[in-house]
Amino acid sequence: MSTQILLNTTTVNLHGSPRRFLVGESISDTGTQTLITAAGGVLVPNTASAVTAAEFVVTARTRGATDLELSMLMVAAVAASYAGGDPPIGPAGGGLGGSYPNPSVNPVTMGGAVGGTSAASTLDLTGNAAITGDLPAANQAAQTMGGAIGGTTAASTLDFTGNAAVTGVLPAANQAAQDASVVTYTPATPADWSGSPATVQAAIDRMAAVVSASGSSPIP
After folding, report:
1. d(CA 162, CA 201)
2. CA atoms of 144 and 149, how far apart (whole Å)
3. Residue where a domain terminates, one of 68, 91, 114
4. Were 142 and a residue from 39, 152, 184, 205 both cysteine, which residue would form a disulfide, CB within 3.0 to 4.6 Å?
5. How many folded domains does the chain comprise?
6. How far is CA 209 from CA 172, 179, 191, 200, 219, in A?
C-alpha cells in the first residue's frame, strides 16, 4: 500500500502494547494500516486536500481542538477531494498499472489471428478465410515460382521447353518470324512428291529446281 492518512483517532495493540494513532497521522507501514483498519480506523489516500487538512489538524490540536473536531475537519477535506478537487493518487488497478497520477496501460492478451499481447503482437493468417484482398506491393515478399515459370514473383521468367501443358496458338502479334528451314511441311498430296520434303525451305528449293530445269533460269 501507499502512504495513507488516518481520519479518526484509533488505538491498536502494536507489538503487545496499546498504541494510539491520532487523526491526521500519515501511515506508511502495510501491517500497521491493516491493524488500524481492523480496529475501526478509517484510512484514505494522501491526496493534496487530505495532506493540507492533516497540516491544519496538527495546528488545531495544539490549540485544544477535540478529536471529534479534528476528525470532522479531515472528513470534510476528503469529501472535497472525492468531489473532484484533487486528481487520484496511489496504485492503479484494473487494466492500468503503475500509480496515479501517471498510470500505465497493462498489456492485453490478443485473440483470433492476432497472437501475443498488445505490447508485442503477432499476426498469423494460416487457415484464416476471413482475410481477403491484396497486400500493397511494398508489403509483399518475393515468392519462388515453379513449373514453367522460373525466378520469383518480383522477377519471373517463362519456359515452354518440354512443357506439354502449353497448348493453342499465340496471337500473330506475339509470334516471332520463323525461318523456312525450321518450319515443318506436310504435303496435302504426298503422291505429288518423290519423297516428301520435311521443311518449307526444302519444298521451295525443289520446286525452284524443277522450274529452272524446264528452261526458265533464273526463275522470274
Report:
1. 25
2. 9
3. 91
4. 152
5. 2
6. 32, 20, 18, 14, 9
Out of 73, 91, 109, a domain closes at 91
The string of DSSP codes covering 55-107 is HHHHHHHHTT--HHHHHHHHHHHHHHIIIIIS---EE--TTEESEETS-EEPP
Residue with grid cell 515452354, as numbered in its chain: 160
Look-up of cell digits 522477377:
155
Helices of type H across the chain: 30-38, 48-62, 67-80, 200-213
Domain assignment present for 11: yes
Q: What are phi and psi of 80, to 5 degrees?
A: -65, -40
User: Looking at the domain assignment, is residue 49 inside a domain?
Assistant: yes
Domain that includes residue 69, residue range? 4-91
β-sheet bridge partners, residue 91:
99
pLDDT in tens, 166-205: 667 777 777 777 788 888 888 888 888 888 888 988 888 8
d(CA 125, CA 145): 21
Amino acid letter for position 34: T
| Residue 101 C-alpha from the chain's centroid | 29
